[in-house]
Design brief:
Blueprint lengths: L6 E14 L2 E14 L3 E6 L5 H8 L7 E6 L2 E2 L7 E5 L10 H7 L8 H14 L15 H13 L5 E5 L7 H18 L2 E5 L3 H7 L2 E6 L4 E7 L14 H26 L1
Parallel strand pairs: 3-8, 3-9, 6-7, 7-8
Antiparallel strand pairs: 1-2, 1-4, 4-5, 9-10
Helix pairs in contact: 2-3, 2-4, 3-4, 6-7
């Protein structure tokens, strides 16, 4: 679906070195990726391979040591309202209702009250929380809290959604329902998604492309196009091609895990 679309995010030669106990540690090294407009890209790899580091750099929450990120041709120099974040932790304000949490993202917007109310109502409905507008986070399940976080990230209409293990804390059944909900919201609202996950099934189910990162330092090991039909539903996991993709990705991750274990033994 993303062929012939323009590049939304250009990641050119991006590397990141951290100082750990006074010694340099290369987290990621010379990552080159182009992400197209409205494309859904998943990033997988072993723990510590730099998935979240790369996401934070795209989001402007961290600076690369080398290389650069460009969004719509403009270099990323910090956070911006063209990017929305959803993390594994829900990061909701416990003293605010569902409606209040979502509306908070519009606090600095120049929109009028009526327009803000309309946007909040739209996204409450989009994530399936109609009837819970006045509930507080402690009254919601984990899946419902994450729906609020997704609505809050989308309400000011960013063109890019950055998601870091957003469903990692959910049980399997709720996780599957949230994946289908995310795909529906993505298809309805036309946003570019960069999605970090440890779950290979999840990565394949959601994405147009799955990026496998090598470890120590993190770099692109594989860029795999997922040629599975859309719209998608949970039955897709039984498709023979899904299994082929899964085996290929798991083989790559296993190779990287064995390399890390060999390094740790030295």
């Amino acid at each position: 679906m993303s062929t012939a679309l323009k590049t939304k995010v250009a990641i050119d030669g991006v590397g990141k070195i951290f100082q750990v106990d006074g010694s340099p540690v290369t987290a990621i090294e010379r990552i080159d990726l182009d992400i197209k407009e409205n494309e859904f890209v998943s990033i997988v790899g072993t723990s510590g391979c730099g998935k979240s580091t790369l996401l934070n750099i795209v989001g402007g929450l961290d600076e690369p040591t080398s290389g650069e990120i460009r969004i719509d041709g403009a270099r990323v120099l910090g956070p911006g309202r063209n990017r929305g974040f959803v993390f594994q932790s829900y990061s909701l304000f416990e003293w605010m209702t569902v409606k209040g949490n979502i509306r908070f993202a519009l606090e600095k917007s120049a929109l009028g009250k009526a327009e803000k109310d309309e946007l909040v109502s739209h996204f409450v409905q989009a994530v399936g929380l109609s009837g819970f507008e006045n509930a507080y986070p402690q009254q919601l399940s984990g899946g419902m809290r994450q729906r609020v976080a997704i609505a809050r990230a989308l309400v000011y209409k960013p063109s890019i959604l950055l998601m870091d293990e957003p469903f990692g804390a959910l049980d399997a059944q709720t996780r599957g329902m949230m994946q289908e909900l995310l795909l529906k919201v993505w298809e309805d609202h036309k946003v570019t998604v960069l999605f970090v996950t440890h779950d290979v099934d999840e990565a394949i189910f959601l994405a147009d492309r799955v990026i496998v990162l090598a470890s120590r330092p993190g770099k692109v090991k594989k860029d795999l196009t997922i040629k599975l039909p859309r719209p998608r539903s949970f039955e897709l996991v039984t498709d023979p091609q899904f299994t082929v993709y899964k085996r290929e990705i798991l083989t790559d991750i296993r190779e990287e895990t064995l390399k890390v274990m060999a390094l740790d033994r030295k």
